[in-house]
Task: inverse folding
């Protein structure tokens, strides 16, 4: 990976900017008119409920209830690339506790958070930009990024030590999320007609698969119509399980030419397909473009848990899904190589997965 050892420009902490009481956002955050959230010339913004799946049905003694649930998930992965899950087995108390410790972390004085300031080599820690291009437009967001898996990348010392319960809660949350992710990738494998451990094995299995968390913090923004919390992108990895604040929306997904605002359902998670599953499924499952809008009266926090292939895993369309009529759409690429694109250029819509298509 050809990533820089340090950020090419001084880092601007968005939360500090927001707190300073400015009425106008700096030009570095002002998006060109075509990228602004309110460019409604041919784009209408509507709020929607994305499909909700009750995971409890996967434990039903009734075969047909289980099969219907698998079919429903498979259908939404083809049609939406996004769905919400309820009765996922993670206690509402743990969800609430985890959100609360992260809200507390972001309220700490800047010096405390600066102890964990991150670098573009690994992105681990407290950060304020994705991408290293000099002069790039910036997003209205600070974040904290940490690794859970593989074990060799896990480092408790790189996790916040305040609030005091933080490390314990972060670990407990990670453990549960890895289990949920593994349950979901099994269902995705079955839904594609593959062996149930196909995705797990392709990602490198127990020892190599990776899992990480990015906690996004979107401060209040005095001019929310000029910028974005997170620019359009598709997630580069396997699957993402998002836990957003529920009293405020912000996530938008693209459907055709429309940006639809997702209504988060309390106590549910939002799951979306990443580029690696699109590649592995030979584009049967869709990694859908999404972005985040901000607002002037309330800050918003979201926990994006990414379950990904190991860095050295070579991801390619499953042989079983490649036929004469549906030739392989993508050539094999390691996840490390694939991910270096977004880490260098920042969020760029679906341009990477599009450019990764094999020549025909
Ligand atoms: C992400 C993401 C959405 C949100 O972190 O990749 O898309 O609502 N987050 O914060
Ligand atoms: Ni995303």
Result:
């Amino acid at each position: 990976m050809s990533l820089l050892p340090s950020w090419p420009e001084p880092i601007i902490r968005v939360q500090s900017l927001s707190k300073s009481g400015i009425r106008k956002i700096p030009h570095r955050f002002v998006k060109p008119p075509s990228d602004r959230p309110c460019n409604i010339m041919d784009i209408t913004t509507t709020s929607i409920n994305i499909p909700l799946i009750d995971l409890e049905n996967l434990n039903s003694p009734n075969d047909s209830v289980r099969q219907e649930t698998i079919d429903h998930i498979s259908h939404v992965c083809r049609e939406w690339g996004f769905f919400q899950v309820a009765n996922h087995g993670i206690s509402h108390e743990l969800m609430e506790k985890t959100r609360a410790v992260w809200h507390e972390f972001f309220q700490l004085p800047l010096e405390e958070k600066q102890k964990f300031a991150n670098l573009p080599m690994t992105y681990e820690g407290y950060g304020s930009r994705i991408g290293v291009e000099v002069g790039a437009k910036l997003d209205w967001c600070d974040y904290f990024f940490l690794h859970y898996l593989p074990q060799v990348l896990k480092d408790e010392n790189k996790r916040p030590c305040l609030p005091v319960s933080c490390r314990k809660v972060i670990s407990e949350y990670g453990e549960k999320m890895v289990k949920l992710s593994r349950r979901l990738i099994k269902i995705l494998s079955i839904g594609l007609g593959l062996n149930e451990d196909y995705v797990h094995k392709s990602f490198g299995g127990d020892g190599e698969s990776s899992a990480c968390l990015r906690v996004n913090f979107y401060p209040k923004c005095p001019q929310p119509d000029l910028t974005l919390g997170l620019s359009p992108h598709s997630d580069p990895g396997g699957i993402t399980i998002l836990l957003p604040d529920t009293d405020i929306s912000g996530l938008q997904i693209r459907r055709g030419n429309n940006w639809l605002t997702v209504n988060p359902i309390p106590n549910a998670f939002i799951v979306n397909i990443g580029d690696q599953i699109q590649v592995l499924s030979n584009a049967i499952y869709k990694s859908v473009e999404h972005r985040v809008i901000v607002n002037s009266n309330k800050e918003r926090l979201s926990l994006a848990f990414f379950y990904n292939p190991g860095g050295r895993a070579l991801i390619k369309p499953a042989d079983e899904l490649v036929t004469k009529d549906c030739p392989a759409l993508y050539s094999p690429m390691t996840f490390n190589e694939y991910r270096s694109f977004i880490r260098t250029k920042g969020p760029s819509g679906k341009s990477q997965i599009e450019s990764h298509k094999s020549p025909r």
